[in-house]
Amino acid sequence: MRITPQIRAATVADAEMLTDLAARTFYDAFADMNTPQNMQAYMSKAFSLPQLTAELSDPQAKFLIAEVDGVAAGYAKLSPGNVPASVTGPNPIELVRLYVDRKFLGSGIGNDLMQACMDEARNLGHRSIYLGVWEHNHRAQSFYFRWNFRVVGSHIFQMGDDPQMDWLMERDL
Known about the structure:
Helix content: 25-40%
Largest sheet: 7 strands, mixed
Number of helices: 5
CATH architecture: 3-Layer(aba) Sandwich
Shape: globular
CATH superfamily: Gcn5-related N-acetyltransferase (GNAT)
Number of domains: 1
Number of strands: 7
Strand order of the largest sheet: 1-2-3-4-5-7-6
Order of helices and strands: EHHHEEEHEHEE
CATH class: Alpha Beta
Structural class: alpha+beta
């Protein structure tokens, strides 16, 4: 069933809610393919309240929250960051995260968030966008291919003590 969310910019006031949403969606996406120890090692650093508060306070980072009836259903993070050498598009920005709560998967919220990210990136003056996606995350890969991303390289994503291969994907805006 198609659901149209309200999408808004996140603020530091959203840190607690975003910490919960980020941890829950990451866990749902990857827990069944990783050890509990590696999940905990990564999540305890990436999704703590101080970490998300710091990320939300970064003027370079842009977070978007998708809400359905006032409930956070998904989020995305954009950041200009350090661009990998294999990303060659003009004035790129990284789509650092795009996650949708499990109960909203298949409802169109991911597409709405992606469109909002494209619009935000263009508004910020960027002309290309890139991301990293785990080589074993076939659902996400299919989603990004539908959005015309192409594989341009790879890098290591450290999940606890497990160095995992991420594909780098990009597309022009």
